[in-house]
Structures are given as C-alpha cells and as structure tokens.
Design brief:
Blueprint (H helix, E strand, L loop, with lengths): L6 H9 L4 E5 L8 E5 L1 E3 L5 E6 L5 H10 L1 E8 L5 E13 L4 H8 L5 H12 L6 E15 L4
Antiparallel strand pairs: 1-2, 1-5, 3-4, 4-7, 5-6, 6-7
Helix pairs in contact: 3-4
C-alpha cells in the first residue's frame, strides 16, 4: 500500500529537476490539455513554468489564462515509484519575463551554456514567444509505492 509523502518529502521531490506534466481545462468539446513542461520550484514557494504564445502552444497559454487553475504532476518512473501532484491557482502570466527567470528554469534541464543561450534568445525575441506563469500550490496529492 503506498504511503502519502510528508510535506518536506513532497516539496523536495517537486523541487528536483524532473519533467512536469501540466493539465488544464479544455475548451469546447475537447478534453483537458495535458503536456510536459520544464519548471522551477523551491520548497514553500510557487511553481513557475513558461510556455509560448504562438503556433501550437498558443492554445495552452489561452487555456491557462482562461481557467486560472491547473494540475501539475511529477513522477519517479522507476522503482520505488513516487509521484507528486499539485492543484494550483495561476497567480501571474508574465509576457515579458526576465532572462534570469527563464534561466532559473532552463538551467535545470540544459548545460550552462545552452541554458543561457536559450534564455537569452527567447527573451530577446521581439514577437514575445514566452509567457512565464507563476502558480500557487493549493492542494497536494502524493504517493510513495516503495514503502511498506
């Protein structure tokens, strides 16, 4: 039987550099939109992630702004299996994020030079392709399947 992670365990787990899975209410007859994203989180703080405003990702941005809430899940896919899901309220959508804010996310996933180049290039784009979302965790769900 899985056990629920403690507050410290779940916050530390979410703070690790994992790929998050974001889910937001769909529109019309479509189901919720569920997509993988890079993110940043510090224990006790808010969740941040970015998305685009053009092309295929424009729908994600619009849905997040319209719904004002989301579900976000990270997991450990190898034994001992664990997951943390947070239900969040969107606090802010920054259409002109600072390089430092984007770098706080990209540096978790890319080597230093690549992370800096990605952050510099995307924040300097005059078409404004990035929206940096800040979301407050309101409710936590978690499980550790490695515990007896």
């Amino acid at each position: 039987m899985p056990r629920t992670l403690t507050t410290t365990e779940r916050e530390d787990f979410l703070a690790e550099p994992r790929i998050g899975v974001l889910s937001v209410e769909g529109d019309g007859d479509r189901p919720p939109l569920t997509v993988p994203v890079w993110y940043a989180y510090e224990p006790g703080g808010d969740l941040t992630f970015f998305t685009g405003t053009q092309g295929r990702t424009a729908r994600k941005t619009r849905l997040l702004e319209d719904a004002g809430k989301l579900s976000f899940c990270v997991q450990q896919a190898e034994f001992p299996y664990k997951y943390v899901t947070v239900e969040c309220s969107v606090l802010k959508a920054d259409r002109e994020p600072r390089v430092e804010d984007v770098l706080a996310i990209t540096s978790r996933y890319l080597p230093e030079g690549h992370a800096q180049g990605f952050a510099d290039g995307e924040t300097a784009d005059p078409t404004g392709t990035f929206v940096l979302f800040t979301a407050r965790p309101d409710r936590w769900l978690s499980a550790d399947f490695g515990s007896e």
